[in-house]
Amino acid sequence: MKNLKLFTISLALIAFTFNSYAQLAQKFVLFEHFTNACCGPCASHNPIFQNGILANNVGNVHHIAYHTSWPCSPANPDPMYAYNSSHNNARTSYYSVGGVPIIQMEGTYWSGMPAYVTQTMVENILANASVISVIVKEVTVGTDRDVTITVTTVGIPPPSTSWRIRTAVVEKEINYSSPPGSNGEKYFPNVFRTFLPHAGGETFDPVTQGNVTTYTYTYPLDFAVWDTSQIYVIAFVQENGTRDIINSGSSIDPLPTPSGINDVQVSNIPYMSQNYPNPASGITSVKLYNTGSDLQFEIVDLLGRTVYTQDVSGENYVNFNTSDFGQGVYFTRIINEGAILDRKKMVVVH
């Protein structure tokens, strides 16, 4: 009876762990970038960051460029700073920024000059899932935009009493015909325009797993200054004490696909079992059915990246080691000539 009780408790623990991790959301990387059109080092660092990190991580990162009051002079200020000096100043003060260019990656996860951000740093964050999802939608109504932000608590959030959600209106690309400052730059991506409803943001209370919180805003489109076709919104949840970013979302994010949510058996014939044990922390096994020729077994992460592959033509089992996998949700699948025949959800815990 004692052994049966322990076994029951173990099953309950596994079920709890699975439910805690299986529904976690895709994690986005947020870069808050402080720059200025008269900053000499900005002209050399910014293009490296733009052509490398931003260009290679479309759909996985969010970027907000705040423009500071210096080194441009008060008589000839950076126009992107002058447009909303109070909100730009508020964010600069929040991080105690004393020089540009500087990037705050995921709040205070990393701080440094833009050219020193590496792809490995980005991938280390993308390898983790998030306990909240942030979905942003916009609708143009006349000369206004209506914004709806849905924040869903899909995991168990760390304890905090100072969560804030901040919502930024951003202009995706600004191209000047001549440099607006003295450093020669003419191209400026993801330029900050304003916060909704204000620079301090609003209180966010994740409450419990499964909680859904909705925020709605309306802002006027500034047709005189903005290219309104380039305007979009980024929202992010931040722990105000540590300044950690929990997750972010934007109105131009690719929509989540159903394939990332549920197990799918495309064929009428099952091709594999659920891996055992699941959740996995080391060696785990999958039983294979109806194996023929030209069959591949793959494991992909939440971002669709293949992390393991093996030819299983004619095999009855596949065993693999998850010790080197990052903790989170993955999908095992059987592939034939590019078609997914079967897929199962797998959770890795350490």
What does this structure look like?
- This protein folds into two domains: 235 residues, Immunoglobulins (Immunoglobulin-like, Sandwich); 90 residues, Immunoglobulin-like (Sandwich), CATH 2.60.40.3080.
- It has 350 residues and is an alpha+beta fold.
- It contains five helices and 20 strands.
Q: What's a concise summary of this model?
A:
With 350 residues, this protein is of the alpha+beta class. It contains five helices and 20 strands. The chain is elongated.
Portion of residues in beta strands equals 35-45%
Q: Tell me about the biggest sheet? A: 5 strands, antiparallel
Q: Which structural class should the secondary elements be placed in? A: alpha+beta
Helix content: 10-25%
Count of structural domains: 2
Order of helices and strands: HEEHEHHEEHEEEEEEEEEEEEEEE
Total DSSP helices? 5
Looking at CATH, which topology of the largest domain would you report? Immunoglobulin-like
Mean pLDDT: 87
Shape: elongated
Name the CATH superfamily classification of the largest domain.
Immunoglobulins
| Rg estimate, integer Å | 23 Å
- Outline the low-pLDDT stretches: 1-23, 257-265
CATH architecture grouping of the largest domain? Sandwich
What is the class of the largest domain in the CATH system? Answer: Mainly Beta
Secondary structure tally: strands? 20
Distance between the termini: 29 Å
Topology:
Layout (H helix, E strand, L loop, with lengths): L1 H21 L2 E2 L2 E7 L4 H17 L4 E7 L11 H4 L2 H10 L7 E4 L4 E3 L6 H8 L2 E2 L1 E10 L2 E10 L9 E13 L11 E10 L5 E2 L8 E9 L10 E9 L5 E6 L32 E5 L8 E6 L4 E6 L5 E5 L6 E9 L2 E10 L2
